[in-house]
Amino acid sequence: MAQDTNREFDAVIVGAGFAGMYMLHRLREQGLSVRVFEAGDGVGGTWYWNRYPGARCDVESLEYQFGFSDEIQRGWTWTERYSAQPEILRYQNYVADKLDLRRDMQFSTRVTSSTYDERAGLWTVETDKGDKVRARFCIMATGCLSAARVPDFNGIEDFKGEWYHTGDWPHEGVDFTGKRVAVIGTGSSAVQSIPLIAEQASHLTVFQRTANFTLPAGNRPLTEDEVRKTKEVLLENRKRARDTPGGIICFEYNETLAADMTEEERARELDGRWHMGGFAFLGSFGDLMATQEANHLAAEYARSEMRKVIKKPEIVDLLLPNDHPVGVKRLCLDTHYLETFNLPHVDIVDVKKAPIERITAKGIVAGGKGYEVDCIVFATGFDAMTGAILGVDITGKKGEKLRDKWSAGPRTYLGLGSAGFPNLFFITGPGSPSVLSNMIVSIEQHVDWISECIRRLTAGNIRSIEAKPDAEDMWVAHVNELASQTLYPQANSWYMGANIPGKPRVFMPYTGGVGVYGQKLAEVAGADYEGFTLGA
Ligand code: NA7
Question: How many Å apart are CA 184 and CA 190, to the nearest integer?
């Protein structure tokens, strides 16, 4: 039921994940009136929806938490090196309680449109519950991986069994005991869920289109000592994280080029970092993400380690990635993933060679062969980075639709705003480091910048801020130019929009790193929001 009609707020925030929660807190501190709309029935965003078995963050828990409040961080104790989804969601609810966030949030409400009224200088935001509110600022805290996507397989409606998407998992959980299960996809969500699904299923068939690099996660319980020590320095650590490329300080990047190292030095780096677990491996050489030669050394090492785990000779080649450089698709952290394929009741089907043709009442047909199953798990990913933003019908000045403006790929200035759409902000939008970084560090970086911007606008009686077209053109070109100096564009990844048929192939995140990006943000703000037009 609509709770708000014709009310006016200073700001509307779309989404109550980490970004929406912190944004609300910051704006309320300024005494602004704010309404958050959230489609789920609680806070959490990504961690609200992704409840599949094994869902876990791939950034270490001691770094994947808010860093703006000593009281909040001291009041919470993480239990594992990589937190599981239920623990992260409990943490988010703890923060929502502490800051009393829910009183300004309206749950189970999806924003359908947001339209700028040029004369009034206000956004009109409408929801699927019939709300129609107005606000000076509209802030999209919609997340980069929140528009879950089931591919358009023929016959899906005929399937008589149960099917699920990892990104929209039933809250009550799913019992696969004794069931014949199909998992489609082998990205992070599949890599995490497959070992646990296999523990219950009578038979598991995995449909793989692209083999991924998987690296042992090395998850473990945290010791009391390391938790206590981290609490002492967390806020300091967080400041340091903002100066790093990835917003992470648990490892450092080796800046030496592979060619400048001896074979022994390279082997030591690769081996040490591989066994550290996590993303440290990608920091083995300074040019690992920039040159084929350096990357190949790391990829060969990774394949040789992965090969050791796989015991069925007939599937080794299928499970080893060989069509893209390592790291250009998100590296998957592995806890018994490859080992699972050694089990007698687990099979893998190569759908690159034999694509899925259709889904039938009884299962899946691929390459002319039928696979009868009781359940299908779509671990097929998201319409990443732009899907949730463009899921809202956004209309800016002169009736221009953001969907039309971005039809050939997203266009932003700094990933924060888009020309023609005044007072509309994106938190971790395309064109910012976002998914190539520790998301919470990037969220805090953006929220702090946006809230300071709004504070200065309000104090100066300035009604609007809007990206200038030429600044935006320059930024889009800069983001593309930086990406082209890396190997990232070489894979069919969701970073490129390549997983969605028809989506423009544009590398969306900013590859220059959180630290360099932060300096740019500070320069822009320090120069009276250079590249933006401020309206009186
Ligand atoms: P991903 O990483 O996008 O993985 C989706 C998987 O589904 C991937 O293996 C895809 O193969 C596969 N896929 C997608 N469409 C199809 C069709 N039509 N047929 C067969 N296979 C298909 O999503 P995740 O949820 O695993 O992870 C998303 C991020 O969350 C992750 O990177 C972390 O940051 C956390 P493809 O590789 O496209 O050939």
Answer: 8
CA of 144 from ligand 1 middle (Å) equals 14
The CA distance from 101 to 123, in Å, is: 23
- Which residues are 124's β-sheet partners? 115, 134
Mutational test site, ligand 1, from 207, 279, 322, 380, max ligand atoms within 8 Å of CB:
380
The Cα 166–Cα 85 span in angstroms is: 12
Owner of token pair 């990892």: 166
CB 350 within 8 A of CB 208: yes
The rounded distance, in Å, linking the Cα atoms of 125 and 77 is 38
pLDDT by residue for the chain (536 residues), tens only, comes to 566 667 999 999 999 999 999 999 999 999 999 999 999 999 999 999 999 999 999 999 999 999 999 999 999 999 999 999 999 999 999 999 999 999 999 999 999 999 999 999 999 999 999 999 999 999 999 999 999 999 999 999 999 999 999 999 999 999 999 999 999 999 999 999 999 999 999 999 999 999 999 999 999 999 999 999 999 999 999 999 999 999 999 998 999 999 999 999 999 999 999 999 999 999 999 999 999 999 999 999 999 999 999 999 999 999 999 999 999 999 999 999 999 999 999 999 999 999 999 999 999 999 999 999 999 999 999 999 999 999 999 999 999 999 999 999 999 999 999 999 999 999 999 999 999 999 999 999 999 999 999 999 999 999 999 999 999 999 999 999 999 999 999 888 999 999 999 999 999 999 999 999 999 999 999 999 999 999 97
Mutate to test the pocket of ligand 1, among 145, 188, 319, 434 (most ligand atoms within 8 A of CB): 188
Residue 148 Cα to ligand 1 midpoint, Å, equals 10
The owner of tokens 């801020």 is 465
- Cβ of 146 closer than 6 Å to ligand 1, yes or no, is no
Measured in Å, residue 5 CA sits from the centre of ligand 1 at 39
Judge residue 30's burial from the number of C-beta atoms within 10 Å of its C-beta, 0-12 exposed, 13-18 middle, 19 or more buried: middle
Determine if ligand 1 sits within 6 Å of the CB of residue 380: yes
Beta bridge partners of 14: 37, 140
63 to each of 80, 241, 248, 334, 438, how far by Cα in Å? 12, 9, 7, 19, 8
Token look-up 């070992």 returns 195
CA of 198 to the centre of ligand 1 (A): 19
Q: Does ligand 1 have an atom closer than 6 angstroms to the CB of 85?
A: no
Q: Are 28 and 57 in contact (CB under 8 A)?
A: no
